[in-house]
Design goal:
This protein has 350 residues and is an alpha/beta fold. It contains 6 helices and 18 strands. The chain folds into 2 domains: 1-41, no CATH class; 66-337, Rossmann fold.
């Protein structure tokens, strides 16, 4: 999914040339004639305002009751009835369920410290969720906190208009209202969940979406060659814009995709899981505790390469799952971080 460069109001739809009326403050607008989305140019990158947290909907049953040292936010969006002519994704909800089971049974996350946002029922706009704050992640994070952010859904690329991206594009994730407000860009995610991390707090993010390899806008990207050699690339912008934390560490495991690979969303009666999420969970389950980041990535890549077929994940949806859906078109796992480290020596611990 690609979104074009933003422009100032008033604007015309770049697809059908219809005149679009832009309300001040809008980040994007959707054409009522052809349904195309036009991004609104931002003038400068400003700090996100300190807004009050949105009120939680009643009766969801998903809100965490505890505030332990281990906390997680797991988001899975199916886009049911939202994607014209494309159908809904079959994997994201199962991705969230399987990830929750892994966190609880493998890494000891308390169940009441995990916030699950699934389907189209809970939060109509992830903009408010990510950009205003959440009850558990990572606002108020302190030394020793281990935080996990998981997103399973659609990703996007938006033309970079401030020159701080190596490839000329901002990566993004698509909430339910992305066709009205636009996707949530990498620098916005960075400002919301990376920069607040204090010394001694760590964040692990796993993102199963296309165009997600650098979606947390972290400073360093790890490149691994076919023969297993690795090196860190410095992605800090020349402008000096900070992409780091407030002393903590952030790590992103996401799938690389060029946007041209075949995507299979298998709209079948049987449940499915995303290829990226499946390879991550399966690698963690198969490898010994304390596996290094390098070994984890190698195992994930092998699972992706073997891909397809039946999956045998443990947990609440293990038995019904029959297919792995590569809805994000991922080709191999990518690792990025707020700081450089030896991936073959540092153990992966949540």
């Amino acid at each position: 999914m690609n979104f074009g460069r933003r422009s100032t109001a008033p604007v015309r739809c770049k697809y059908c040339s219809a005149c679009l009326t832009v309300t001040p403050g809008e980040r994007a607008i959707q054409c009522t004639q052809c349904y195309g989305v036009r991004r609104i140019r931002r003038c400068a990158r400003l700090p996100l305002p300190a807004l009050p947290r949105p009120a939680a909907p009643m009766g969801t049953g998903f809100l965490p009751r505890g505030r332990g040292k281990k906390r997680a936010v797991l988001i899975g969006i199916t886009y049911a009835s939202m994607r014209r002519g494309c159908g809904e994704l079959r994997g994201p909800i199962n991705d969230v369920k399987c990830t929750r089971h892994l966190l609880c049974h493998r890494f000891g996350f308390p169940s009441d410290c995990i916030l699950m946002l699934t389907g189209n029922k809970w939060w109509s706009s992830m903009h408010e969720f990510l950009l205003m704050g959440t009850p558990i992640h990572p606002w108020g994070a302190s030394y020793g906190d281990s935080l996990v952010f998981h997103f399973s859904g659609l990703g996007a690329q938006v033309a970079d208009d401030d020159g701080d991206e190596v490839d000329g594009y901002d990566e993004a994730i698509c909430p339910l209202d992305s066709f009205q407000k636009g996707p949530i860009l990498d620098y916005e995610i960075n400002e919301a969940i990376v920069r607040p991390l204090v010394h001694g707090a760590k964040l692990h993010a796993v993102v199963d979406a296309c165009h997600s390899a650098t979606v947390l806008d972290l400073s360093f990207l790890c490149r691994i060659s076919r023969c297993g050699n690795w090196q860190w690339e410095d992605h800090r912008p020349r402008s000096g814009v900070c992409k780091g934390t407030s002393g903590g560490q952030a790590v992103l495991i996401a799938g690389y995709s060029d946007g041209r690979s075949k995507i299979s969303a298998t709209p079948e009666a049987y449940a499915s899981v995303g290829a990226m999420t499946h390879s991550f969970i399966k690698a963690v389950e198969c490898e010994p505790r304390g596996v290094t980041y390098g070994r984890l990535l190698t195992s994930m890549k092998a699972i992706m390469t073997n891909g397809g077929g039946r999956c045998s994940l443990q947990g609440p949806v293990g038995a019904p799952v029959s297919k792995v859906a590569n809805f994000s078109g991922v080709q191999e796992p990518n690792l990025s971080s707020s700081e450089m480290f030896d991936i073959n020596c540092k153990p992966f611990v949540l």
